[in-house]
Write a structure and sequence with these properties.
Elements lengths: L1 H20 L14 H17 L10 H14 L2 E8 L2 E8 L8 E6 L18 E3 L2 E3 L3 H20 L8 E6 L10 H7 L8 E4 L4 E3 L7 E9 L1 E10 L3 E2 L8 H12 L10 H10 L7 H6 L4 H8 L6 H4 L5 E8 L6 E2 L2 E10 L5 H12 L4 E7 L12 H13 L3 E8 L5 H5 L5 E3 L7 H4 L8 E3 H19 L4
Parallel strand pairs: 3-6, 3-7, 7-17, 9-16
Antiparallel strand pairs: 1-2, 2-6, 4-5, 5-18, 8-9, 10-14, 10-15, 11-13, 12-14
Helix pairs in contact: 2-4, 2-15, 4-15, 12-15
Bound molecules: zinc ion.
The site of zinc ion has 5 residues, from helix 4.
């Protein structure tokens, strides 16, 4: 009996402590909850219209799509501004003001999309057709749904007259798919004051099946990105007639040097962010994966894990600096030895890798002075957002509230997003889109037949509202 009392007291205390860690929930508050079914229906209509604007980048013409979103907010009396970085490349900022002494929470998305070859699609790629519960269109997942979740959140907070202890800003950028020079990077450089947030959520971190086989879906919430370093190698030699092979044929110089460089990838290096990310999976996995992921700091465990759960190449790309040869060019004519030959290398650096030292290693492995190297793109500093603090806790809380059977871990992505322009300015930015996809749905992103279920759109609208209310609503 005594033991039972102790156990129940412990449980009660644990629950109490847990409740103390989670930000309180706005839905329990005095403000009336939104009428979800009306909001979802309205959101679906906006989503379909938004998708019908062809915002393919290049040429990155977002003007009409942004005008459409702006019109919805303007009609409602929500403060908006549009910014044009070059003709047609327009970004939007909308704001629900909060107390001036507190920086706002930013809901970030992008309006541009990658190209689609219409002939390959089951439904035209800018149709916004609703078929079998799915809305079909390029941009349905990447990243227009996220913009609609933000806009519906703004509308619901505004219409509900929800008092705010922190302002809410939404920004929809041009040019994300081409690197952001005319979108987020340009906004950060020229109009920072228009949004200047405390923290942000952005694309990335969709709930997916657990890559280690656990039964719960996982949000890999991006807190960091590998750093892009693109290099051009140029081999210099002597031109001549292809009928007479020469040792200083630059094409030959280049392929031999590339073979030396690429015989193996750089060494595995477990960074603190990946150590933390993988350890976060451990409690959700079966033995021995659970043990291995929780003890990667021990070299023999890391060794075993690299031949086990960490064997897939997409995971190993997060555990080392990587080099992918991508472009190659030499002579324009088959019987002409050129005077130069070029190769492009897509290198992705881990946080903490010294770029100059990495470049020296590349030079040493190429081992040929006839090859010069220049930067196509230099790596940034690669700051990491903390997997702790107000925004992080709210993401954890909204996953617990709206996605039973899912969990969230901090993660690093191999690709880049607009989040880096915020992180560079010291603003924590989290890749978190509250929808659940399986692998076959995810593969449609940047591929053929991209689509999003209405169910996912609806759960995304609710979870985005809940997250924003947790962080910004005054009464809890
Ligand atoms: Zn995207």
């Amino acid at each position: 009996m005594k033991l039972r009392m102790r156990v129940s007291m412990t449980i009660a205390l644990a629950l109490f402590a847990l409740a103390g860690f989670s930000p309180p929930c706005a839905a329990d508050a005095g403000a009336a909850a939104p009428d979800w079914s009306a909001l979802d229906k309205e959101g679906l209509g906006y989503f379909q219209t938004y998708l019908r604007f062809d915002t393919t980048n290049p040429p990155d013409n977002t003007a009409q799509a942004i005008a459409f979103l702006k019109g919805i907010l303007d009609k409602e009396g929500i403060e908006t501004s549009a910014f044009e970085s070059k003709p047609g490349a327009v970004s939007l900022v909308a704001r629900l003001p909060g107390p001036p002494d507190k920086k706002p929470f930013l809901l970030l998305s992008h309006a541009d999309v990658v190209p689609a070859v219409a002939a390959d699609w089951s439904h035209p790629p800018f149709s916004g057709d609703l078929v079998d519960g799915y809305v079909w269109s390029r941009g349905a997942i990447d990243n227009k749904a996220h913009g609609i979740m933000a806009i519906m959140t703004m509308l619901a907070l505004h219409r509900g007259h929800v008092p705010l202890r922190r302002g809410v800003v939404m920004m929809v950028n041009a040019d994300e798919e081409a690197g952001g020079a005319n979108g987020a990077e340009w906004m950060a450089a020229n109009h920072w004051d228009a949004f200047d947030p405390a923290f942000a959520v952005n694309e990335g971190g969709i709930a997916m099946p657990d890559p280690f086989g656990g039964r719960d879906a996982v949000f890999e919430v991006s807190v960091a990105e590998k750093r892009v370093m693109w290099l051009r190698l140029t081999a210099h030699g002597h031109s001549g007639h292809g009928s007479i092979p020469t040792p200083d044929n630059p094409t030959l110089i280049l392929i031999n040097a590339l073979a030396r460089l690429l015989a193996s990838q750089p060494e595995i290096r477990l960074t603190s962010i990946m150590s933390q990310a993988l350890a976060s999976f451990a409690p959700h996995e079966a033995f021995p994966t659970s043990f291995e992921l929780g003890h990667l700091g021990w070299p023999f465990v890391l060794d075993a894990a690299l031949r086990g759960p960490l064997e897939p190449t997409f995971l190993q790309a997060l555990l080392r600096d990587t080099i992918s040869p991508t472009t190659l060019s030499g002579s324009l004519k088959v019987n002409v030895i050129p005077s130069t030959a070029e190769a492009g290398l897509d290198c992705r650096l881990l946080p903490g890798t010294d770029a100059q030292a990495f470049l020296r290693q590349i030079k040493n492995r190429l081992a040929d002075d006839r090859i010069s190297i220049d930067f196509i793109q230099k790596p940034d500093a690669g700051p990491i957002s903390p997997a702790s603090g107000e925004a992080w806790d709210a993401i954890q809380a909204v996953v617990a509230k709206d996605f039973p059977g899912a969990f969230a871990v901090p993660w690093m992505t191999t690709g880049g997003t607009d989040s880096r322009f915020l992180r560079e300015k010291g603003v924590p930015a989290y890749g978190f889109v509250p929808i659940i996809l399986d692998e076959s749905e995810r593969r449609r992103v940047h591929g053929v037949d991209e689509r999003l279920s209405v169910e996912n759109l609806n759960r995304g609208i609710k979870a985005t509202y809940d997250l924003t209310a947790m962080l910004c609503a005054a009464h809890q």
